[in-house]
Amino acid sequence: MQFNNILVVGGGGFVGRHLVAALAARGATVSVPSRRRERAKHLTLLPTVDVVEADVNERAALRRLVRGQDAVINLVGVLHSRRGRRDERGPNDYGPDFARTHVELPQALIAACREQGARRLLHMSALGAEPGAPSEYLRSKGVGEQAVIAADDLDVTVFRPSVIFGPEDRFLNLFASLARLPVLALACPRARFQPVYVGDVVRAFLAALERRDAVGERYDLCGPKVYTLKELVEYVCGVTGRGSLVIGLPDGLSYLQARMLECTPGPLMSRDNYRSMQVPSVCDCPFPFGIAPQALETLAPFWLPPPGAHDHFSELRLRARR
Predict the structure, then answer these.
(1) pLDDT digits (tens, 9 = 90+) for 205-243
(2) Which among 55, 182, 183, 238 is placed 20 to 30 Å from 25, CA to CA?
(3) Residue 272: pLDDT above 50?
(4) What are the pLDDT digits (tens) for 276-302?
C-alpha cells in the first residue's frame, strides 16, 4: 500500500513531530494543519512538509485539508477539559474540550474522508479508552475510537498506547523538573503504566500504513515493563541525580491534591486525571508488526541528564513545547 500525500492532524505535537519527520524521510508529502503556523515552524524545515494555518474544528477547513490526500492520521488529544455548563457537556458526560477533540473531530474526519475519497485513516486513541470508563478523558476517547472502528467503509486502524515517553515528552520531563524539590508528595503512587517509546509508536504507524492486514484493527501499544507511578518518579530522580524524597499519598489525599491542582493555570493534575489513573495503563499483548519495544532504562538516560548548566534552558523549552 503506497501513500504519497498524507494529512497528519496533530502533527505539531510530541508524537506528531516524530511521525511527520519519519514520513518525510520516506519521501511522503505531508500536510500539517495548525491554528498558528509558528507553533509548528520546526516542521517547515522538512522539504516535503507543508504546515497549513487552519482550524481543524471548522468542517469546511477540514474538508479542504482532506481533499487530495491518500491517507489521514489523527493524533489530536487533550488531557484537560473545561467543566462547562451542563448543556455543553456530551451525552456521555464529558466536558466541551473532550467532546470537541476526542469525539466530534474523529466524526468530522470520517465524514471528510468519505466526502473527499480519502479511504485510509489512522487514529490515535488511548489504552483503557471505553465509553463506560471512570474518567471523562477515557470515556470521550472511547466514544471517538468506536466511531472510527464503526466506519467500515473506510480503511481504518486504531492505536491505543500507554503513556508515551521520549525526548521532550510531557511526562518524564515534568517529573525531572519537579524533582528539584526536596520532597515530592505524589498522588496515585500505585497507578500502573507500561511506558512506550515514541520511536516505537512511530514505527507502528509506519508499518500499519504499508500493511493491508492492519485495516480494521485496534492495537494496544506498551513497552516491555510495567511500573507504578512512584517507581517511575523515583527512577527519574535517580537518573537526574536529584535526591527528592517521594512520598505516595493515600487515595483521599490524592483526590484532594488533584482537586487543588486543577484550579491552577495549566494544571499539573485534575480530578479527571485521578480517575483515569484508577485504570491500569498496561497490556499483555505483543507489540504489533514484529516490533521489539525498547526499554525506558536504555533510552531515558540520554535525554534525562544529571542537573547542570543547561537545566534552566531545558525547562524553558519544555514549557514552550519545543
Answers:
(1) 999 998 999 999 999 999 999 999 999 999 999 998 877
(2) 55
(3) yes
(4) 999 999 999 999 999 999 999 999 999
Distance CA 184, CA 164 (A): 22
Per-residue pLDDT, 84: 57
Q: Which DSSP category does 67 fall into?
A: T
**What proportions of the chain, in percent to the nearest 5, are helix, strand and coil?**
40, 15, 40
Q: Please give the biggest Cα pair distance in the chain.
A: 56
What's the rounded Cα separation, in Å, for the pair 10 and 20? 10
> Which residue has 501499544 as its cell numbers?
221
Contact indicator for 15, 202 with CB cutoff of 8 Å: yes
Query: What pLDDT score was predicted for residue 37?
Result: 77
- Residue 146 has φ and ψ, to the nearest 5°, of -60, -40
- Distance, in Å, from the CA atom of 14 to the CA atom of 269, rounded to the nearest integer, reads 19
Look at residues 81, 98, 154, 166 and name the one whose alpha carbon lies nearest to residue 123: 154
User: C-alpha cell of 269?
Assistant: 493534575
What the block records as the C-alpha cell of 215 is 485495516
pLDDT value at 310 more than 50: no
Show the cell assigned to 73: 492520521
Dihedral (C-alpha) 270, 230, 129, 96: value to the nearest 10 degrees? Answer: 10
Residues 6+ apart with CB under 8 A from 172: 165, 195, 232, 236, 300, 304
Q: Which residue has the cell 538516560?
A: 301
> Using CA atoms, how far apart are residues 56 and 61, in angstroms rounded to an integer?
6
Cα–Cα distances in Å, from 308 out to 6, 176, 304?
A: 41, 13, 11
